[in-house]
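Protocol step 4 of 5: obtain the predicted structure for the target chain.
Materials: sequence only (see below). No template structures provided, no constraints applied. The aim of this step is simply to have a reference model before the mutagenesis design in step 5. Sequence pasted as it appears in the construct record:
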Amino acid sequence: MEARGINMLTARRKGRRVAEASVALAAQFRRSADGSVGLPLMNALLRATERPEEFLASPEIVEAAGPPAWREALAGVARVGFGPRARFLAGGVLLAGFLIWMEQNRIISADEAKQAVLSATEDRQKGAAEAGDIGRKLAANVQNVADAATETRPLEIGPLSPSIARRLDGFGLGVGGLILVLSAASAGPRMAAFALPGALIAVLGAGVFDPSARTLGFTSLVAMAIGAGIFALGLALGRARR
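Step 4 output (structure tokens):
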């Protein structure tokens, strides 16, 4: 171009545009099933080198360029923030909070569970017997909570505000955690649209609707059922699309 009397700056600018047009042309022809689809190759090459600005602005190239960069960036953020790995980690955090809450309210005993595991490694029968005792105690304690015979207190963790902890449903933490962990088996972004609301309703629904609601009470059970139902709907729709 410089040999034709075009100054260096203009030549570089046009060279860059020609390169962009060539890349766009190559991408278009890669998407084409054969040479008859899209612009004829030779004419397209001539057009791209002689008038790259017009070529890049043509409807064929604009349509093939795909979504804008901001949309791609937003999709990337959504994949990271709401993808399977993030849902699995969030579910693990909720399940850990659920176990801590149960230990704090003496529904389960971490020491007894640890002892049962140690016993099972030395004597299987003894470990199985201790595990059975733990299961019976757990069932009795859960029944007492459901019958309001045992009063529970909110989850207590250092950075968690008491005002927020009071609105967390103890057993809802477990249901919400299971929803998020199970949803991680589906990599599709649609599952997050069902799993996240379902988990939030299970964990916070009862406390938001009725701050005085007790866990495993009517409001609590309805909130957990709605959350699980939303997740089940997402699973059903996901299978129907396959």
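Step 4 remarks: The CA atoms of residues 116 and 132 lie 10 Å apart. Residues 2-64 form one domain.
Proceed to step 5.
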